[in-house]
Specification:
This protein is an alpha+beta fold. 48% of the residues lie in helices and 13% in strands. It has helices spanning 6-11, 33-48, 52-58, 77-93, 102-114, 116-120, 124-140, 273-282, 285-315, 321-346, 360-385, 403-406, 418-432, 435-446, 451-461, 465-475, 477-485, and strands spanning 18-21, 24-26, 59-62, 65-68, 144-147, 170-174, 178-185, 196-199, 214-219, 225-229, 253-263, 267-270, 349-350, 356-357.
Length: 490
């Protein structure tokens, strides 16, 4: 099978999966408006793989077949740039608002497969399993989502120290068919409309947590897997004027495993605390998914900066110096985000697994600073938009008999029509102030983990020796100068 179409993806969602939304069982996700909206957004991304305008950016040929570029391990600078362009094409189609688009976990699985020897160190069959799973993904082109975080009941305790031993996902026992697991994982973004869920541990497991360390993938329809969606952020996703970004609400969920059997051929490792803590970094999955994250972030920055500019120009406030300064600040942040992408590519290195791996330093820098950049962009939009963001009429008012008599009160500067102004202001609010916009901001703050730990990890992993050498030269400038330039004695 080659790359799938959107219709093929949607057809596969009617598989009896157990999804719960607002206290009730959803028997078909495509019959539920908020889930169907998310699913159709994903379907459009699948269709891009067949669109002549995008196909050259999103797929590659190999062995007589066509595969997603996100499932190809980069081996050269050209490969890395090509994959970056693919990330940009997908992110642009969703304005950078879909953080867990199909290419994200594809990239993760590709990194894992490239590092199959890491998994083989625990057990040779696990290395074979991850390679076979990657090959299977290339053949079937499934939509993979993932869940990695343990429920935060008591953060001061390790997994094995929790009052309930089966709150964090745990191996119950081994059977002939595979592993039996019980517990929960967060945050399953888009899992309700995914084909499969990839589960793996992130660092910070401790001695005694062996039975909580497991990596695997299973279909979302697997018996015993219950998907509990968070409360929807949009009441009616069909009101496109009032909530224009509703199609990009990537529904989050809690994934509850009730004695789920994971087949042995889908187990990638288990029972190894040291491997669990090193997995994400040593396999370079952190680096490769990081490239995806900073590309998507830059695309979102384009949307937010563009909204700020458009609102200023529509209201005529772009003529004021202080507004120009704010817009210049946002444009500067946008360019810094783009520069970080280039730095990650230019400083890439060959990993021990034979993949050209983006430089982690600029990725970590952007992961820490981008939420602050995005927060400032939102603040500027609110400042420029002012009270107008809160005074737009309802979508229904534009189609009512009242509209002709009030339309002139909602026009913009220099002939901007009332409907265009209202649409722009509602877009600005949806991106920054609505429940959807607030979820987007919270996502940026935490989708890569605790920002304090991110900054600390950058310090811990950064080679500071050149910086300290610079300080040493500054401490003894005359000595250094004389030693470097002293003429040989005759």
């Amino acid at each position: 099978m080659s790359v799938r179409t959107g219709a093929e993806y949607l057809k596969g969602l009617s598989d009896g999966r157990e999804v719960w939304l607002a206290g009730r069982r959803v028997h078909d996700v495509l019959d539920e408006p908020i889930l169907a909206s998310a699913a159709h957004t994903v379907a459009r991304l699948y269709d891009l793989q067949h669109d002549p305008e995008f196909r050259g950016h999103l797929v590659y040929e190999g062995d007589g077949e066509v595969y997603p570029i996100s499932l190809a391990a980069p081996r050269s600078p050209l490969d890395l740039k090509t994959r970056g362009r693919a990330f940009h094409a997908t992110a642009s189609a969703t304005f950078g608002l879909l953080g867990r688009s199909p290419d994200f976990v594809n990239t993760l699985v590709t990194a894992f497969s490239s590092a199959h020897e890491f998994f083989s160190r625990t057990d040779p069959r696990f290395g074979r399993n991850i390679k076979a799973f990657h090959a299977d993904c290339r053949e079937r082109d499934p939509f993979l989502s993932h869940a990695t975080i343990n429920p935060p009941l008591n953060r001061a305790r390790t997994s094995s120290e929790q009052d309930d031993p089966f709150v964090h996902l745990r191996i119950v026992r081994e059977v002939s068919e595979g592993l039996v697991v019980r517990g929960a994982k967060l945050i399953g973004t888009l899992v309700p409309v995914a084909d499969e869920i990839v589960v793996f541990p992130l660092p910070k497991y401790a001695k005694g947590d062996d039975s909580y360390t497991v990596a695997f993938s299973i279909p979302v329809s697997t018996p015993g897997l219950r998907i509990v969606c968070r409360e929807p952020l949009v009441a009616d996703p069909t009101r496109h004027l009032s909530t224009p970004l509703a199609p990009y609400d990537e529904i989050d969920a809690t994934c509850i495993f009730d004695d789920v059997v994971v087949p042995w051929d889908r187990v990638f490792f288990h029972g190894d605390v040291d491997a669990a803590n090193r997995l994400y970094d040593v396999t370079t999955a952190r680096h490769h998914t990081g490239q995806h994250g900073i590309v998507r972030g830059a695309v979102k920055a384009e949307l937010l900066t563009g909204i700020a500019v458009a609102v200023a120009e529509m209201s005529g406030t772009n003529a004021f110096l202080h507004v120009q300064e704010m817009l210049g600040e946002l444009l500067g942040s946008l360019e810094l985000a783009k520069a970080g992408i280039l730095a990650a590519e230019v400083d890439a290195h060959m990993s021990e697994w034979g993949t050209l791996t983006p430089a982690i330093a600029p990725i970590m820098a952007l992961r820490y600073h981008f939420p602050k950049m995005a927060s400032r962009m939102i603040e500027v939009i609110h400042t420029i938009g002012g009270g107008s963001l809160l005074s737009t009429p309802a979508e229904e008012d534009l189609r009512s008999e009242l509209w002709p008599s009030i339309e002139r009160f909602f026009r913009g500067a220099d002939g901007v029509s009332a409907e265009h102004r209202i649409r722009l202001l509602k877009l600005a609010w949806d991106a920054t102030g609505s429940a959807f916009g607030q979820r987007q901001m919270q996502y940026e703050r935490y989708h890569s983990g605790d920002p304090v730990r991110l900054a600390a990890a950058q310090y811990s992993g950064y080679d500071t020796s050149p910086l300290l050498e610079t300080v040493n030269r500054a401490l003894h400038p005359a000595t250094v100068y004389m030693e470097k330039w002293r003429e040989p004695q005759t």
